[in-house]
């Protein structure tokens, strides 16, 4: 798992907690901050997944090239 994927998951979890705390305490600002954090975490997680897939693709191409040389 890529570092950005992990940080995104953590950010989403923190946002969820913040959002629920805002709902419970009837604090719309805290609730909105939680929603923003969740969205930001989802974007970061997606970025991390994309980075990982590109890296895996490059490694696969390199492995195929090495196999052809042998």
Q: Can you walk through the features of this model?
A:
The protein is mainly α and 70 residues long. The protein has one domain. It is built from two helices and no strands. The protein has helices spanning 3-24, 28-69. Helix 1 (3-24) packs antiparallel against helix 2 (28-69). The protein is rod-shaped. The two termini are 31 Å apart. The mean pLDDT is 95.
| Element string (H = helix, E = strand) | HH
Q: Specify the helix fraction band.
A: over 70%
- Compute the number of helices: 2
Task: Return the domain count.
Answer: 1
Approximate shape: rod-shaped
Distance between the termini: 31 Å
Q: What structural class do helix, strand and pairing data support?
A: mainly alpha
Q: Give a short account of the largest sheet.
A: none
What share of residues are in beta strands? Answer: under 5%
């Amino acid at each position: 798992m890529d570092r950005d994927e992990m940080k995104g998951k953590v950010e989403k979890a923190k946002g969820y907690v913040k959002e629920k705390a805002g709902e419970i305490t009837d604090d719309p600002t805290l609730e909105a901050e939680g929603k923003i954090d969740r969205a930001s975490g989802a974007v970061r997680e997606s970025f991390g997944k994309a980075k990982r897939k590109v890296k895996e693709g490059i490694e696969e191409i390199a492995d195929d090239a090495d196999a052809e040389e042998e």
